[in-house]
Amino acid sequence: FMYDPSGLLKKPGLPVFECNSLCGCGEECRNRVVSKGRKCNVMLKKTDKKGWGVFACEHIPKGTFIGIYSGELLGHEESEERAIKYDQFGRTYLFDIDWWYIDAELDAKEAKEKQQKHKETLKTTEEEESALHEQIPIDNHSCDPNAALTPVYIDVDEIERPLLTIFSKRHIHPHEEITFSYSGD
Questions:
Q1: What is the pTM of this model?
Q2: Using CA atoms, how far apart are residues 79 and 94, in angstroms rounded to an integer?
């Protein structure tokens, strides 16, 4: 399993496939962390220089599930168009997601077909909608982040559509802003 007995992520940077409705295990299974929901308290508040941010209300140990990143998953062309529009207003809140493990085995033709498939904004799944209370709407960038995005799969039928979850990369102190790198780790 990717989680230790306490439910902390052991290997950041790799995709997580949690037990799901097809598994014979019960709720006590240690491979069910994201599906059990956030256990740490966070708050939204204004920052001095970056607008709104997410802050820890308590000590958050390394490897803790913090929440599900909320936002739109866009294809390349749509994200480029929006970037141009957003730059006109001086506000660009886009970052690239490279699921390297998905395309690692594909040849160039297959990779291009997959990119074309994502021209339109993807719709939220029923699972994502039921998990809205776990979502983190704002998470600011840092070159020295204390959290990272981790793709998690639970009852997902498309490998390109994981839940974008946020796990702590190190211990996070109370009142510390939770950040991740928009350019990857």
A1: 0.74
A2: 7
Residue-wise pLDDT for 125-143, tens only, equals 344 334 444 566 567 878 8
Backbone φ and ψ for 150, nearest 5 degrees, come out as: -135, 125
Q: Give the SS3 label for residue 176.
A: coil
Q: Helix count (H) and strand count (E) of the chain?
A: 4, 9
Q: How high does pLDDT run on average in the chain?
A: 78
Residue with tokens 């998470």: 139
Average pLDDT over residues 39-61: 90
What residue type is assigned to position 70 of the chain?
A: S
Q: Which of 23, 47, 48 is nearest to 35 (CA)?
A: 23
* Region for 147 from its dihedrals, namely left if φ exceeds 0, alpha if ψ lies in -120 to 50, beta otherwise: beta
Q: Give the helix ranges, DSSP H, for the chain.
A: 76-88, 100-103, 108-117, 126-130
Residues 6+ apart with CB under 8 A from 46: 52, 53
Phi, psi of 166 (to 5 degrees): -115, 125
End-to-end CA distance of the chain: 22
